[in-house]
């Protein structure tokens, strides 16, 4: 039996969950339509109620402690279950569009050429595709499914490797030549192309002990436009190798470096919030990745079962 009288105030638990999902008091406040100061006050009150430190306050941003993460995950999981039941009982679940968040490059290079197949299989489904480099919330109040590039570690979420592909530094042969070794220092003398909303060019050069020469400029633009610009010789581009494999084979682009610090594109979902339609989309996108690998489109490695895969297949 639940001891309702000894539970912390729901408003405080909600503030902690919003902080866990957004990573900042400002965004958490916007999510709950309160001020960031109110979020901080609620969490301080919750810490006093529990006698536990729930956040670390040493840096510029608040980070959850292990205890804070455990409480937040429990709140998010419980609220997600309540939301799912209410949506199912009221019919809201079926009426709500399927929302998928991914990078612009993934949307233009992988999803859009294949999306007609999903629509043929699910003709009555409304889909909201959000192509953005910004990491959006996945789960209650956010996207159903995410397709993210990284190492597979996102707090509170489950992830399954979909496309095993390194980041590639590429350019048109007309810009950098046909052959020979190219040192990262040599590339600082070129104009760079990167996906809108990222700092991939400067991050790559900094990793190699170089700085981006801003006198040469850098252009940030959506993934599909970045590829067109790279093919036209307008700069050195940073993109997942899977999306330029055909260009490399055809000689339209030259591979200069590979960055394998991150693993590839992951299918990401909230473990306590998976609608039936989201399950169907996840199964479909897995099949598309396997098919692309079989057709030799450069997607190295078929999807690998990740944490919690048995729950959704």
Your description of this structure?
The chain is an alpha/beta fold. It folds into three domains: 10-90, Arc Repressor Mutant, subunit A; 96-164 and 263-295, Periplasmic binding protein-like II (D-Maltodextrin-Binding Protein, domain 2, 3-Layer(aba) Sandwich); 167-259, D-Maltodextrin-Binding Protein, domain 2 (3-Layer(aba) Sandwich), CATH 3.40.190.10. It is built from 13 helices and twelve strands. It has helices at 10-22, 25-32, 36-50, 66-90, 92-95, 104-111, 115-121, 173-176, 184-187, 200-207, 223-231, 245-250, 276-294, and strands spanning 55-56, 63-64, 98-102, 127-131, 145-150, 158-164, 167-171, 192-195, 218-221, 236-240, 254-259, 264-269. It has a five-stranded mixed β-sheet, covered by helices on one side. α10 (200-207) links the parallel β8 (192-195) and β9 (218-221). α1 (10-22) packs across α4 (66-90). This is LysR family transcriptional regulator. Belongs to the LysR transcriptional regulatory family.
């Amino acid at each position: 039996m639940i001891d309702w009288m000894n539970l912390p105030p729901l408003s405080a638990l909600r503030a902690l969950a919003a902080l866990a999902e957004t990573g900042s008091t400002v965004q958490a406040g916007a999510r709950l339509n309160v001020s960031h100061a109110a979020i901080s006050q609620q969490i301080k009150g919750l810490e006093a109620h529990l006698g536990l430190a729930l956040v670390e306050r040493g840096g510029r941003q608040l980070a959850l402690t292990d205890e804070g993460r455990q409480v937040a995950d429990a709140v998010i999981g419980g609220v997600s279950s309540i939301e799912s039941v209410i949506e199912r009982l009221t019919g809201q679940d079926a009426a709500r569009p399927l929302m998928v968040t991914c990078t612009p490059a993934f949307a233009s290079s992988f999803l859009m050429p294949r999306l007609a197949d999903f629509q043929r299989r699910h003709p009555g489904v409304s889909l909201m595709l959000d192509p953005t480099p910004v990491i959006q919330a996945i789960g209650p109040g956010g996207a159903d499914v995410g397709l993210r590039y990284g190492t597979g570690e996102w707090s509170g979420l489950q992830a399954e490797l979909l496309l095993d592909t390194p980041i590639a530094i590429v350019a048109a042969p007309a810009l950098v030549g046909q052959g020979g070794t190219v040192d990262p220092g040599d590339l600082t003398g070129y104009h760079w192309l990167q996906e809108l909303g990222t700092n991939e060019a400067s991050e790559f050069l900094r990793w190699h002990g170089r700085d981006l020469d801003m006198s040469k400029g850098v252009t940030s633009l959506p993934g599909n436009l970045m590829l067109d610009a790279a093919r036209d010789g307008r700069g050195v581009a940073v993109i997942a190798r899977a999306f330029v494999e055909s260009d490399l084979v055809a000689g339209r682009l030259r591979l200069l470096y590979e960055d394998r610090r991150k693993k590839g594109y992951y299918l990401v979902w909230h473990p306590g919030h998976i609608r039936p339609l989201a399950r169907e989309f996840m199964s479909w996108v897995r099949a598309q990745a396997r098919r692309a690998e079989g057709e030799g489109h450069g997607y190295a490695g078929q999807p690998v079962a990740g944490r919690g895969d048995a729950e959704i297949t």
